[in-house]
Amino acid sequence: MGIGHHFLPNDPTKWNVEDVCEFIRSLPGCQEIADEFRAQEIDGQALLLLKEDHLMTAMNIKLGPALKIYARINMLKDS
User: Fold this and answer.
1) Given this model, what pLDDT does residue 6 score?
2) Helix (H/G/I), strand (E/B), else coil: 1
3) Dist CA 15 CA 4 (whole Å)
Protein backbone atom coordinates (compact mmCIF):
# COMPACT_ATOMS: atom_id res chain seq x y z
CA MET A 1 0.00 0.00 0.00
CA GLY A 2 0.91 3.64 -0.12
CA ILE A 3 2.24 3.79 -3.67
CA GLY A 4 -0.70 5.90 -4.84
CA HIS A 5 -1.72 6.47 -8.46
CA HIS A 6 -1.27 2.78 -9.34
CA PHE A 7 -4.45 2.12 -11.33
CA LEU A 8 -5.98 5.56 -11.81
CA PRO A 9 -7.19 6.29 -15.34
CA ASN A 10 -5.16 9.06 -16.99
CA ASP A 11 -8.25 11.22 -17.54
CA PRO A 12 -9.55 12.50 -14.15
CA THR A 13 -13.03 13.11 -15.62
CA LYS A 14 -13.35 9.30 -15.90
CA TRP A 15 -12.53 8.69 -12.22
CA ASN A 16 -15.22 7.20 -10.01
CA VAL A 17 -15.62 7.97 -6.30
CA GLU A 18 -13.14 5.25 -5.30
CA ASP A 19 -10.53 6.57 -7.75
CA VAL A 20 -10.87 10.04 -6.22
CA CYS A 21 -10.48 8.59 -2.71
CA GLU A 22 -7.33 6.78 -3.87
CA PHE A 23 -5.95 10.04 -5.28
CA ILE A 24 -6.71 12.02 -2.10
CA ARG A 25 -5.30 9.24 0.09
CA SER A 26 -2.04 9.43 -1.90
CA LEU A 27 -1.53 13.09 -0.93
CA PRO A 28 0.64 13.77 2.14
CA GLY A 29 -1.42 14.12 5.33
CA CYS A 30 -4.76 13.57 3.59
CA GLN A 31 -5.49 9.92 4.46
CA GLU A 32 -8.37 10.73 6.85
CA ILE A 33 -9.83 13.30 4.45
CA ALA A 34 -10.36 10.69 1.70
CA ASP A 35 -13.40 9.31 3.56
CA GLU A 36 -15.05 12.72 3.38
CA PHE A 37 -14.71 12.68 -0.42
CA ARG A 38 -16.45 9.28 -0.43
CA ALA A 39 -19.21 10.54 1.89
CA GLN A 40 -19.78 13.54 -0.40
CA GLU A 41 -19.76 11.26 -3.51
CA ILE A 42 -17.02 13.26 -5.24
CA ASP A 43 -16.13 11.62 -8.55
CA GLY A 44 -13.59 12.84 -11.09
CA GLN A 45 -15.86 15.40 -12.72
CA ALA A 46 -16.91 16.82 -9.34
CA LEU A 47 -13.28 16.86 -8.17
CA LEU A 48 -12.28 19.13 -11.05
CA LEU A 49 -15.10 21.55 -10.14
CA LEU A 50 -14.14 21.88 -6.46
CA LYS A 51 -12.86 25.20 -5.12
CA GLU A 52 -11.06 25.87 -1.81
CA ASP A 53 -14.25 27.17 -0.21
CA HIS A 54 -16.10 23.94 -1.10
CA LEU A 55 -13.37 21.95 0.62
CA MET A 56 -13.44 24.13 3.72
CA THR A 57 -17.17 24.76 4.14
CA ALA A 58 -19.04 21.77 2.72
CA MET A 59 -16.35 19.24 3.58
CA ASN A 60 -15.00 20.78 6.77
CA ILE A 61 -11.35 20.50 5.71
CA LYS A 62 -8.79 22.80 7.34
CA LEU A 63 -7.24 25.54 5.20
CA GLY A 64 -3.77 23.94 4.91
CA PRO A 65 -4.91 20.57 3.52
CA ALA A 66 -7.60 22.31 1.43
CA LEU A 67 -4.99 24.47 -0.30
CA LYS A 68 -2.75 21.45 -0.97
CA ILE A 69 -5.65 19.45 -2.39
CA TYR A 70 -6.76 22.41 -4.50
CA ALA A 71 -3.21 22.85 -5.85
CA ARG A 72 -3.12 19.18 -6.83
CA ILE A 73 -6.53 19.48 -8.52
CA ASN A 74 -5.17 22.40 -10.55
CA MET A 75 -2.16 20.29 -11.54
CA LEU A 76 -4.58 17.60 -12.77
CA LYS A 77 -6.45 20.18 -14.84
CA ASP A 78 -3.22 21.39 -16.44
CA SER A 79 -1.84 17.94 -17.28
Assistant:
1) 56
2) coil
3) 14
